């Protein structure tokens, strides 16, 4: 087996801790790249994505970039989509990214949008 990078080890460690305390709640998974930020609410038991939002959505694309404001917009959108799907409580999966900057902005906006974690 190939040796895992530091980021992959951190991701695995975070996800293992999440699954231990999830208690059947869906997971709000966040991924950020240099240009975009993505958020999904995933039901791991069923293996399905319940809601998703990103800066690549058609009505957002072009006017936002890789900023904290864009991340906050994605947080509000994923919270609205989750509420529409009947989800209010989730477990936050930062995916190995530090809880700072864009990731924190997305989480705060999702909380304001009605998600509990």
The gist of it:
This is Large ribosomal subunit protein uL18. Keywords: Ribonucleoprotein, Ribosomal protein, RNA-binding, rRNA-binding. This protein has 117 residues and is an alpha+beta fold.
Please name the defining characteristics of this protein.
alpha+beta; 4 strands; 117 residues; four-stranded mixed sheet
Report the principal-axis shape: globular
Q: What's the order of the H and E elements?
A: HEEEHEH
Tell me the strand percentage band. Answer: 15-25%
State the distance separating the first and last CA atoms: 35 Å
Mean pLDDT: 89
> What value does the Rg take, in angstroms?
14 Å
Q: Output the structural class.
A: alpha+beta
How is the largest sheet built, in terms of strand order?
A: 3-2-1-4
Major beta sheet summary: 4 strands, mixed
- Helix content estimate: 25-40%
Q: Count up the helices.
A: 3
Total strands: 4
GO cellular component, one term: cytosolic large ribosomal subunit
Organism: Sphingobium nicotianae
Pfam families: Ribosomal_L18p
GO molecular function: 5S rRNA binding; structural constituent of ribosome
């Amino acid at each position: 087996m190939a040796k895992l990078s530091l980021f992959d080890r951190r991701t695995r460690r975070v996800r293992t801790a999440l699954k231990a305390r999830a208690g059947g709640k869906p997971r709000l998974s966040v991924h950020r790249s240099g240009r975009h930020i993505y958020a999904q609410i995933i039901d791991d038991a069923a293996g399905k994505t319940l809601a998703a939002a990103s800066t690549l959505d058609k009505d957002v694309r072009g006017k936002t970039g890789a900023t904290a404001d864009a991340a906050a917009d994605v947080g509000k959108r994923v919270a609205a989509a989750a509420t529409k799907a009947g989800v209010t409580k989730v477990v936050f999966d930062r995916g190995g990214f530090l809880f700072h900057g864009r990731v924190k902005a997305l989480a705060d906006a999702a909380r304001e949008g009605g998600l509990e974690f």
